[in-house]
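Run: sequence + 6-O-phosphono-beta-D-fructofuranose -> complex structure.
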Amino acid sequence: MKIGVLTGGGDCPGLNAVIRAIVRRGTSDWNHEFVGYRDGWKGPLENFTRPLGMEQVRGILPRGGTILGSSRTNPIDIDGGMEAIAENMENDGVDGLIAIGGEDTLGVARKLFDAGVNVVGVPKTIDNDLGATDYTFGFDTAVNIAMEAIDRLHTTAESHQRVLIVEVMGRHAGWIAFHSGMAGGANVILIPEQDFDLDQVCGYIERRFEEQYAPIVVVAEGAKPIGGFPEEEDSQTDAFGHVRLGGVAHWLEGRIREKTGKDARATVLGHVQRGGTPTAFDRVLATRFGLYAIEAASEGNWGKMTALHSTGIDLVDLADAVATLKTVPPELYSEAEVFFG
Ligand code: F6P
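>> structure
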């Protein structure tokens, strides 16, 4: 078979490990031929390809990013986009496609499958917010990067007796904030699932200072105060209609200073969380997803997505893959609240 591989959406550590596993197993067990589609859906849409074989995947296991490139190109919004993908694949003799991506990429994969294209999906997002899988690779790496940053911020916060606010990624779900905040001993963790009360946050901060410690506030980029932000927000959107976030930490910086009279500084971790080498957990999970994805494609098990359930890898329907957003449940959040203040 000839199989196309693409990576779509925001990149994340572990993508290369998936690509490597697909090509290694696909070549040795089934003698498949591969084509690398460049830059997400832009690749099959514009027939933008690069060679993909054993030679190209050598040495890429620990490398962050994706050798295929990625983009947020959305073929659904492009007139004739879905048809062009099917046509380009057929003209090139590509029998099926493995799409590695998050909610948006897999949503397109699902629509393509419904339209008769052979597709298998592999879930990817540092946000860990896909309901169909227990974990996505990239998340553990992001959490460890954020945790290390929090550890470092503790010491400088204490030297200067100031509040340090760390903004981490997490648009709709606060998994990175929750895990890194809990692992890093944050004094308050703010997540998108639960609007925060600014007075309560300031109360925690003051309590912390009373004990001669300096507070660390971990905030997910999608978190907001009860009642929302009074100011206008930046409303730039991407091809999937997502508003570009970022800024809650700076907003908090000003409000905390005003309300507590303490010095407060914001650190926005941003794309640092998505860069660099994956952790061992993410390398193993990504590799296993790759092995199962190529097995599914080889057996003609199209329209599926690999998923981690407990310690095993299952295949779930692509239709279910993007059906539910996995958010931090209140009972789990309350475990972190024990340490607030
Ligand atoms: O979905 C992954 C993610 O890293 C989100 O956490 C974040 O909001 C978004 O991507 C940032 O996207 P971009 O790199 O396009 O700014």
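>> summary
The mean pLDDT is 95. The CA atoms of residues 5 and 68 lie 8 Å apart.
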